[in-house]
Amino acid sequence: MSEKPIILGIETSCDETAVSLIQGDTSGVPKILSNIISSQVDVHKEFGGVVPELAARSHLEKIHLIANKALVKSKIRIDKISAVAATAGPGLIVCLTVGLNFGKALAASLNVPFIGVNHLEGHALSTKLQKKIEYPYLLLLISGGHSQFLSVNGLGKYNRLGTTIDDALGEAYDKTAKLLGIEFPGGPKLESFAEKGDPNKFELPKPIINKGGCNMSFAGLKTAVLRITKNINSVQEKFDLAASFQKTIEKILYIKSKIAIEEFCKINSVKNGSFVIAGGVAANRGIRKRLIEISQKKKFNPIFPDINLCGDNAAMIAMVGLEKYKVKNFDNLDLNANPRLALDKNAKFLKGAGVKL
Ligand code: KG4
Ligand code: ZN
């Protein structure tokens, strides 16, 4: 087995068609040889959200082009690839299937191992593309579909400490942005709206802030924002509402992270450690600032992936592929896509009305 294996990673779980080549290194931090991402924002913009059928069609039209671009950029000959890794879930089944089948076919034709990857594990290990990090570490995964605190105990070893009981944080940003008339996906633009507003103008709820440990809830915010938007007219008031929303989210994450850090210390019998914040929403500057504050206060080392590795990308999928390759954790070509793949398989389902915290 090569000391510096080359892994081709594929990501098509939602609305990004992405292919990346990375190479393992004896330093412990792999080299990203190429990382091509083709976003479908323009395809879905007019619908205000991702349309699965259109997303899948777009993946199909582009996957071979993006793969070719990634190969050319990496300057690697195709027969030098050691293994192919592709996202197997969670995500939209029609989208996952495109990348997974492309990956299986490529692995079969090259006669190299095929590795199915959990998209969330990609986010969880994304920081390993930049620096070495010891297990266990605390992870806050905040994306368009997920919001969870996890103790990352090793490859494939996750202990969920808390989760959202309703909307994901990215979803809350996108829905609030939509109410403010911001185009999909609204998260990044809402952040710039917030910078021009008064964060103390509107009081918004902080659901389950004093209960449920580090579980979170964001759906009530969207309802409150909806009520307020009915009575505001000026652009400045929209900025103020965005700022109030941003401030409320920062407060919720600050308090819930404090609880999560304490729980992490207790279950792992440690007094300090690393706190990795990953996923699309981890690009938010205000959130970064507040989570650095709480980390320092609790003597934790805050770690954020580079902005271009926060959102969906294939380098993080290749990263998981590389770790699995090292321990020969390969998959058969009959592996199916699983839209509900979880990180902690033993964690309780905590969604919907009547959930007990
Ligand atoms: O991880 P990601 O790229 O895709 C999923 O796996 O879901 O996350 C996308 C989400 C979207 O909801 C987007 O609005 C949000 O991340 N997002 C942000 C920011 N950048 C992206 N939310 C708040 N502030 C940002 N700067
Ligand atoms: Zn993601």
Summarize this entry quickly.
This protein is an alpha/beta fold and 357 residues long. The chain is built from eleven helices and ten strands.
Describe this structure in words.
The protein is an alpha/beta fold and 357 residues long. The protein has two domains: 142 residues, 2-Layer Sandwich (Nucleotidyltransferase, domain 5), CATH 3.30.420; 168 residues, ATPase, nucleotide binding domain (Nucleotidyltransferase, domain 5, 2-Layer Sandwich), CATH 3.30.420.40. Helices cover 41% and strands 18% of the residues. The chain has eleven helices and ten strands. The strands form two sheets. A five-stranded mixed β-sheet has the order 3-2-1-4-5, with helices on both faces. 51% of the residues are buried. The mean pLDDT is 95. The chain binds 5'-O-[(R)-(carboxyoxy)(hydroxy)phosphoryl]adenosine and zinc ion (ZN). Zinc ion binds next to helix 4.
